[in-house]
Amino acid sequence: MTDAETALLLARIQFAFTVSFHFIFPAFSIGLASYLAVLEGLWLKTGKEHYLTLFRYWLKIFAIAFGMGVVSGIVMSYQFGTNWSVFSDKAGPVIGPLMAYEVLTAFFLEAGFLGVMLFGMEKVGKGLHFTATLMVAIGTAISALWILSVNSWMQTPTGWALNEVGQFVPAGSWWDIVFNPSFPYRLVHTVIAAYLTTALVVGGVGAWHLLKGARDNPAVRTSFSMAMWMAALVALVQIFVGDLHGLNTMEHQPAKVMAMEGHFESHPDGAPLILFGLPDDEAEKTHVLLEIPKASSLILKHDPDAPLEGLKTFPKEDRPPVEIVFWSFRIMVGLGFLMFALGLWSLLARTRKRLYDWPLLQRFALLMGPSGFVAVIAGWVTTEVGRQPWVIYGLLRTKDAVAPIATPAVATSLLAFVIVYFIVFGLGTWYILRLMSRPPHPGEPQPADAPIRTAGITPAPSLGRRGADPTPDASEEAG
User: Fold this and answer.
1) Domain limits at 355?
2) Which of 21, 54, 77, 108 falls between 20 and 30 A from 347, CA-CA?
3) Is 70 exceeded by the pLDDT of residue 136?
């Protein structure tokens, strides 16, 4: 491997590492912002105290996750100007405005209302505070819209032209760029994944406290019930949306789908679905362990006898690495069906009136708590590695998008990122888990109070309101 190839590999690993860390927090905060809006709305409608208790409980966790998301996002974005400056120069006229729209329409909306949401419960009226919570939730969704539009354009580029210096520039309507062919499917699939990720975390926390004996706590019971409803109803929708997204990918990126399926050979009379196998890029063969005859053609073409091309119909230099895509896809799909199974089990428990006193169900929900994060990372790996060797599919190769950087420089910065990320975000995650380990209870403190009280320090009086000095924890962009 030459120095240039080593530098390219390290730059890709560095971006994958930082974006994977970043993606965890928006995947949680997008769903959690909407969950907070639902909780506050239910409290205002019913007046039931346990909804307010849950709102304040999860609000502190949301603030920390929000803050870690913005820090990891800022660090990640710097790489566009360093390791990937050639890509930024070539694609900047298209992706630059889209990312600017995200800041103008989403980040400013979130930042403008975040302070009111976190610290304004006792300072403003209930209606205005609920409006602030809704605006933050809407802002996270808008942020996801723009960021996913950028990513989708890189997957299925439309509405572009090359100028005289080789840059991609808009040609015609911006709507052709924003609403590119894969964008609607990717947006719905990702947002639902964020909601499921949040529901599984909430359900896991509720299951933990139910197992610890908090079955009479109305906030714990409510949170677990709401999470299980989400798993039961939305997991099935996600499977259907995932199928549509796969058909769209088959139309626009067939090599990615063939890597996901593990098909090197073409199948003129119907392709089998390989459930488990050992793909081998060098031998151009998948050593099959378990398969269902003609099921792949049935899924992808809705006809069991439909012909399906294999990766050997593509030049070797245009194929993605099959081993990674094959297994990351199966991790994502496998976890999706486990989520659906959890939802079905919870429905059975409801019919038997055992939702809160079925330990096996609660242990399963606890085990599935972090599965949403694993699934979204596996899905991201499938999407991005499956796009290789292109950074803009079919137009700009990854090796032609990297900056002329020295291998020692990339290696040093990668090592620094790994050390700092595991320390900083490890501590943040530990603190979130510490907050989750305590059950919600009436009189939950405000986010500004919680860190001070946890540290055992008596809060100083504030002239602005009764209670502790409202020091913000953090703010973040959701995308």
Assistant:
1) 183-404
2) 54
3) yes
